[in-house]
Amino acid sequence: MIKLSYRQIIDKIEREETFHAVADDYSFSIKIDDYVPFACAAIHNGHNLDKELWKNCHHTEHDRWYEEDPATGEMISGLPLTLIAHDSRFEYDLNRHPNEAIYETAWGKRLWKIPLSESLKLKAINKHENFYKVVLTLMVKLEEMFGSVVVYDLHSYNWKRWERKVPVFNIGTSNVDETKYNTAITQWQEILGKLELPIDEKVTCEVNDVFQGNGYFLKYITANTLNTLVLATEISKVYCDEETGVIFPEVVAAVRDQLKYYIQAHAHRFYDRHHSIV
């Protein structure tokens, strides 16, 4: 892996080069082993917080970890084309519009002891905007090369805060063309519902149960492409102890190893179905 500026990353994509890189501000990493008609993203994977914000934050490190999506980057690491965030959503949330990406309060608790300066806000928003410049370049390139693309947008959620039974996996589809992509959505649901995980819970997958797919990442890609489906996919935190922060590596490995196979299988079926009719 090499360190590159946003401009250098964009140039490499435009030249269709394969590479592994981390942004020079360490906000995210990108891996392109091959140009394929699918991509994977873990935009809430990050835990890094600008040092200037440490003492000003009301939330503890575990408070932040609890609302982030730890290990989701690892879960997609076996795929050939990935975008993985390293900065915490508490600094700026990549799944929100840039005008709303900096929290004042987070989950009912005031975030900052002293309101952030405009310079700190600008610094964070610049990273948000630069990330999306890379996303746009990548999506345009993939559609140019393949005609139709599918993006797996992986998140996690805290299942213990729910007072009812919730699924291990959830797919949010309220902002995609459910008629056009019905088969792909159904097949993805069937795949996730059959994953074999070393957990006590029965593995289930529902559509628009706990989340409906209202994130900015999905909306941005959908609005700026012609034939790209974003599958906003949530895994409940059965792969860790939400209360202590302990990760269960055997569960993460099982998710990673099965996603490596099933994402590629699903994506190739998607491509075969859609690329000739776009």
From TrEMBL:
<protein>
    <recommendedName>
        <fullName>N-formylglutamate amidohydrolase</fullName>
    </recommendedName>
</protein>
<dbReference type="Pfam" id="PF05013">
    <property type="entry name" value="FGase"/>
</dbReference>
<dbReference type="InterPro" id="IPR007709">
    <property type="entry name" value="N-FG_amidohydro"/>
</dbReference>
